[in-house]
From TrEMBL:
Species this chain originates from: Rhizobium jaguaris
Localization: Cell membrane
Protein family: Belongs to the binding-protein-dependent transport system permease family.
Gene3D superfamilies: MetI-like
Organismal lineage: Bacteria, Pseudomonadati, Pseudomonadota, Alphaproteobacteria, Hyphomicrobiales
UniProt-listed Pfam families: BPD_transp_1
Protein name as it appears in the record: Sugar ABC transporter permease
GO terms classed as biological process: transmembrane transport
Amino acid sequence: MKTPWRRHRWWLTPTLLILPAAILFSVVILWSAVESLWISLHDWDGFSPMTWIGFGNYVELFNDPQFYVSLRNNVIWLIMFMAAPPLGLAIALLVNQKIRGMRLMKSLFFIPLVLASVAVGVVFTWVYTPQLGLLALIFGFFGATAPAVLSDERFVTFAIVIAALWPQIAFCMVLYLAGLNNLSEELIGAGRVDGARGWNMLRHIVLPQLTQVTFIAIAVTVVGALRSFDMVSVMTQGGPFGSSEVLAYQMFEQSIFSYRFGYGAAIASVLFVIMAVFIVWYLTRIIRIEERGA
């Protein structure tokens, strides 16, 4: 006679394995999002009792010029970060070649990924130093004076994004290297028999097999661009005059330095909605593409 466990093992085993992660996700992510949304409807300094103000924080937020500066900077981050997946793929294709010395090259390209974001920010702060940095040396070689990009409202966001792209490209490279190592040798061999070489091989044989990797690379890159905070904090603290702030840093600044946790929660809620809309749209599109392919 079978015990209850044996009779229901087909669904009890996966449920018990998934349950701890589901509970952790619900508490850390879902409950935190709901709590943040609730706080955004109040005026709260983090210490005294919360005061209900409804959508007052959101009304103030959408009338705040700094919000649109931060939102514009997030769009710049998003557009520039889209260079990470194709550049990561290009580097992965390069270092995946069976050529002497490629292991060393692969290690050098991998270094940014193991560095902390704070370390990357510090390194690029030195690179951009007008008098002594690497940028100054390059400009000096051509007899020119390097601009102080971190002090210029026109260039500061672009300079920070370039610094953040360094480890992001390395991350995408690692993803694509894993994908390239799992390519079907049969399909590649069949392509060679049919005369596929170079671009045709890449387009018709390699890239279709990297669809799932590309999905992960783009999704992680977009989320990374939208939640950008640490590089801004290390390199400029949102300056000069708030010109390099992004939504995540504005949320942090309003909550921690201005003691406006309700207003900061409103910014966090808007950022969460933007991410959620993108993720839902992207997942829907990927599912439709896969259904057509099936």
